[in-house]
Write a structure and sequence with these properties.
- This protein is α/β, with parallel strands linked by helices and 182 residues long.
- The protein has a single domain, classed as Rossmann fold (3-Layer(aba) Sandwich), CATH 3.40.50.
- The protein is 24% helix and 21% strand.
- It contains four helices and ten strands.
- Strand 1, helix 3 and strand 2 form a beta-alpha-beta unit.
Amino acid sequence: MNKSEIRKKILKIRKINYHKNKKINFEPLLKILRKSKVTGKVIGGYYPYNYEVDTIEIFKELEKFNYRLSLPKIRKNYQMDFFQWSTKDPLEINKFGIPEPVSDIIKLPNILLVPLVAFDKNRNRIGYGGGFYDRYIKKLKKKKKILTIGLAYSFQKIKKVPITKNDIQLDFILTNIFKGKN
């Protein structure tokens, strides 16, 4: 199957199974953050949309640990930037129907929580097909060391993601299945 076929199939499965699998265990994420050699406490995330893993409770927990948050705003030419945001701040809906921060203060993340549609054991991902995150990660890695963590449900794992030269492999992928010590 090609990426488009995989995307269509997994999005359908995700919609059907979303309410059974809403939460990701927060402890493995904290463990990764504690062990990370990345300096800085700015976490770029995403506001959950289209049955993605719900990040709101994760954000609330991260704020308790003094992490600062940022969310993306879509720009022209398939670009995006991350802007300061808190769980108490308002959001506005962009032309794609996705909530974005109102703030105009750019906050470059040190840690990036990445949404995905499908993934494989090698931490390759399929997104929605616009390449926004791959371009952003590539651009950010030229400026600083970052940690990329995909959030997904276990049923989104596939045998092999067809990859191209523009696809960026993630550092970690966390799912709703917690496997104990990592």
